[in-house]
Amino acid sequence: MKTKITLLFFIFSIAVFSQDLPPIVKYVPSSYGAGNQNWMISQDQNQFVFFANNEGLLEFNGSYWKLYPSPNETIIRSVKVIGDRIYTGSYMEFGFWKRKSDGLLAYKSLSAAIKSKILDDEQFWNILSYDYWVVFQSLNRIYIYDTQNNSFKIIAPSANIIKAFKTKNAFYYQTNNEGLFEIEGGKSKLISAHPDLKKNRIVNVFEQGDELLILTQGAGFYTLSEKELKKFPTEIDVNFADESVYSCESLSNGGYVIGTVSNGIFIITKEGKKKYHISQKKGLSNNTALSLFEDKEKNLWIGLDNGINCINLNSPIQSYVDDSGVLGTVYTSQLYNGKLYVGTNQGLFYKDYQSNDEFQFISGTKGQVWSLYLYDGTLFCGHDLGTFVVTNGIVKNIFSKSGTWNFVRVPGNKNLLLQGNYYGVSVLEKKNNEWVFRNKIRGFDYSSKYFAITKGFEIYVSHEYKGVFRLETDAKLQEVRRNFAYKNPKKGKNASLVQFNNVIYYANKEGVFKLNNTTKEFYKEPVLSSVFEKDEYTSGKMIVDNSNKIWLFSKNYISYYASNKLINKLKRNSIPIPASLTNSMLGYENITQLSPSTYFFGTTDGYYTMNINELAFENYKVSISNISSNTLNGSVKTNPILEEGRFPHDENNLTFSYTVAEYNKYINVEYQYILEGFQDQWSDWNVRPSVNFKNLPSGDYVFKVKAKLANSNLENTVTYRFTILKPWYATNLAIVIYILLGFLSIRLIHKEYNKYYQRQKEKLIEENNLLLEIKELENEQQLMRLKNEQLSHDVDEINKELAASAMSLHSKNELLAFIQKDLKNNEESDSRSIKTVISTINKNITGKDSWSVFQEAFNKTDKDFLKKMKEAHPSLTANDLRLCAYLRLNLSSKEIAPLLNISVRSVEIKRYRLRKKMDLSHEQGLVEYILTV
After folding, report:
1. 309 vs 297: CA distance, rounded Å
2. What are the helix (H) ranges across 293-441?
3. By CB neighbour count within 10 A (0-12 exposed, 13-18 middle, 19+ buried), where does 828 fall?
4. CB-side exposure of 216: number of CA atoms within 13 Å?
5. Which of 172, 414, 469, 817 is most buried, by CB atoms within 10 Å?
6. 8 A C-beta contact, residue 297 and residue 662
């Protein structure tokens, strides 16, 4: 008995509940920046979504969240978009918000006009609309607002109101222990007082033909027709007894979504069949669904007790998340005989395809399952334990000598199959309609995770740490005859090798390389390599599907290439799903084609499926949500969006925020923009919903932005024109003023230059005249110098003549004295004739002393010389002065000697003595000194 219980527990523990669910986008309070609880949800014509949040009105445009605090700082309990107004209700306050020209919302109170009529402590929990009336419902009364004449009508039931409801053609409300009422002509009318409607709180009311479909909080669905209440059975009736229903909404497909307090949500068809049960265990952020709303794109929004979730009900992607960890990381999958097989790090699992059955573990496959390969009606399993053949949920081991990575068929022989093992490549052979291990190919013992074989029996192997090998084998695939290791392309992390269109490709972080079958060399293939441009490389894994598409993976895209139908050229299709969102294990990405358009993608915590033909998005539009500007280090200012912008020259830092109101979990919106007047080309596609331009110069600009979803370009392109004004000193008026000032300045400068040139001219003339005068003076000085020189020369001549005269006079006197003396001594001296001669001689002898005569004449030509000499040298005697005078006349010693009646030798002695008295240095000449006095 104990063994049976243990076996049952084991079977239960390895069975994984499986239901493929639409993607769930989770928004936590920290991401949207508001309170935890969200009480009501609505959407406007731009597909922006609004939430009645604890902190205020919360807006989400697909890219940015914006919180508008409630006008009286209380919890906003209700929100309803009607036309271009967003009506909200809170504590003792209701009104509407309207968008301003800058894209932000402004609030206008309606309750202020009837403030005296609002009850104390009254809160408005619901807002409904019909034609031009808006209904605000509290727990006490119903306020009907007429939007045409701005008037109010108040309905005040005798009991508290539980909730108000609107169907296509009527308004209803429920009160405590009284039943269901309808409002007609502004008055209340009881339509059912059935006990089940008195004791059970009504969650919502829907029209279903001529009947009303009523959902209660704990008793499930009822139909009401002509006051007859009947139970409406559903597949989730058993849950109503245990779960408290809090919210419910109808879906566009006719089904219903029911939100509970403690068990998530249920989605049922219009017939009452359960389609989904999604709780916190299966992906919701919280089990309490306070509010529900289906938007225009059939996304289901859930206002939770702690956050917001968005379920993409209409998404081409369905996901399965294994929160239990039993299934593990999915490495491979295969659809075989109506069953979906999934290989993981925990083993091999299977279930019936397109069912909500549990995944069943296949006994004997515990461990890593690397590949599932369908060939010739047989499903092969590459396992850490070797190779298995799978049949109807049972496996048979056909090879166990090492782990098996992958399988490749042998060209020209359908009974042979190659398998890449941990220690080389081996051959499987089909004998007697069964596959068996034949042999290992000798001569190569490296791990062969990725490999391919050509028609010439050349095997190409990619080894992550050793690079690419070419193995030339014999025709029987028994041994490797030649092993060639490629230096290029180089080894790389997460590199792989695959055969596509009979061509071998190798991918690493440097790109995708194609083998030239003639040269046996690899060359970079530009078309496929474009996937890894701009640092997009994460993994070189390449997969070829059943319809001959080659798939590649990068940081922000999943890309596939298919041959063009008209020309033999590969065409790229990119799905903007980032690796961080898909949660795939890098290097172990895996894809399986389940149908012509449906693909299976394994992840680290389950898988997701995608219909690539439904990745078309046509009903979306890109819009500019905000335009902000600021000066350098200044505060940010929002600006009108629909008007042409004009910004001061220093307010030239602009930020444009734009969005597509799209809420798909996996498909990211990509944007492309251009600023005409600043850029010449459109930007590259990127997912960032904003761009900033700094320090724009003055001028006219046109900003344009467009978007695309998956491979669908959205039709509209948004345009915003604006001008950065010139600074005041660069405006046209300033330029005109500058021209006038410039003209006046030129005139003034010209005038001043004329004055200046005139002054310069006058000054030049004056200078020329002065130069002429100076020249004349110089000429006069030159003339005077010449005259002085002539006079000096004349003086010298006179001095010479004077000296000669003095000498001549002296000689004459000496001669006459000599003759006189001789005559006197003559014996005939007494004769008359001799006396006459002596008398004549006396008459001709100069009466004065010859020196006195000379001195008198010398002083006349050279005034004060002797006086100066005497003053300079007081010790000079008369003879010394006489010698100085003769030297002044530049007479030689020979010429001076007769004048002094001494010999030439005596003159030299006198000159020597004179030098001593004058105390002249040895280097200084006596004559030179006397001439300078």
Report:
1. 15
2. none
3. exposed
4. 25
5. 172
6. yes
Instruction: Kindly give the pairing relationship between strand 718-724 and strand 645-647.
Output: parallel
Tokens of 840: 């004549």
CB 874 within 8 A of CB 846: no
Comparing CA positions, the residue from 675, 665, 673 lying closest to residue 709 is 665
pLDDT in tens, 646-678: 999 999 999 999 999 999 888 889 999 999 999
Other Cβ atoms less than 10 A from the Cβ of 46: the count is 16
Question: Are residues 141 and 158 in contact, defined by beta-carbon separation less than 8 angstroms?
Answer: no
Closest among 230, 177, 231 to 200, alpha carbons compared: 177
CB 463 within 8 A of CB 486: no
Query: Helix, strand or coil for residue 240?
Result: helix
Q: Are 132 and 148 in contact (CB under 8 A)?
A: yes
3-class secondary-structure state, position 174: strand
Q: Kindly report whether the global pTM for this prediction surpasses the value 0.85.
A: no
Q: Residue 749: which residues within 8 A CB-CB, separation 6 or more?
A: none
623 vs 822: CA distance, rounded Å: 156
Cα 353 to Cα 598: distance, rounded to the nearest angstrom: 13
264 neighbors 232 (Cβ within 8 angstroms): no
Q: Where are the alpha helices (DSSP H) in 83-199?
A: 195-199
- Phi first, then psi: what are they for 716, rounded to 5°? -85, 150
**Residue 489, preceding peptide bond in cis (omega within 30° of 0):** yes
Q: Please, are residues 141 and 180 in contact by the beta-carbon 8 Å criterion?
A: no
Copy the structure tokens of residue 842.
């006396």
Most confident of 222-226, 357-361, 620-624, 700-704: 700-704
Which residue in 315, 317, 206, 314 sits closest to 270, CA to CA? 206
Task: Mark 199-223 as b/e (b = at least 16 C-beta within 10 Å).
Answer: ebbbbbbbebeebbbbbbbebbbbb
User: β-pairing, 38-43 with 49-53?
Assistant: antiparallel
Pairing of strands 78-82, 65-69: unpaired
What is the Cβ-side half-sphere exposure of residue 845, based on CA atoms within 13 angstroms? 16
Strands of the sheet containing 369-375, edge to edge, are 369-375, 378-383, 386-391, 394-399
690-693, strands of its sheet edge to edge: 637-638, 622-630, 653-660, 690-693
Query: What's the rounded Cα separation, in Å, for the pair 684 and 319?
Result: 30
Report d(CA 612, CA 600) in Å as an integer.
11
Q: What is the spatial distance between Cα 828 and Cα 249, in angstroms, rounded to a whole number?
A: 192
DSSP string, 21-65: B--EEEE-HHHHTS-S-EEEEEE-TT--EEEEETTEEEEE-SS-E
Residue whose token pair is 């109170």:
109
* pLDDT tens-place string over residues 145-178: 999 999 999 999 999 999 999 998 899 999 999 9
Mapped onto helix, strand or coil, the DSSP state of residue 926 is helix
- Cα separation, 754 vs 740, in Å, equals 21
Tokens of 6: 């243990």
Largest CA distance in the chain: 214
* Contact (CB, 8 A) for 439 and 430: no
The model's pLDDT over 514-530, given as tens digits with 9 standing for 90+, comes to 999 999 999 999 999 99
- β-strand partners of 655: 628, 692
Residue carrying structure tokens 């709180």: 201
The type of residue at 864 is: D
SS3 content of the chain, % helix, strand, coil (to 5): 25, 40, 35
**What is the C-alpha end-to-end distance of the chain, expressed in Å?**
158
CA dist., res. 878 & res. 870, Å (int): 10
User: Is 846:811 a contact under the CB 8 Å cutoff?
Assistant: no
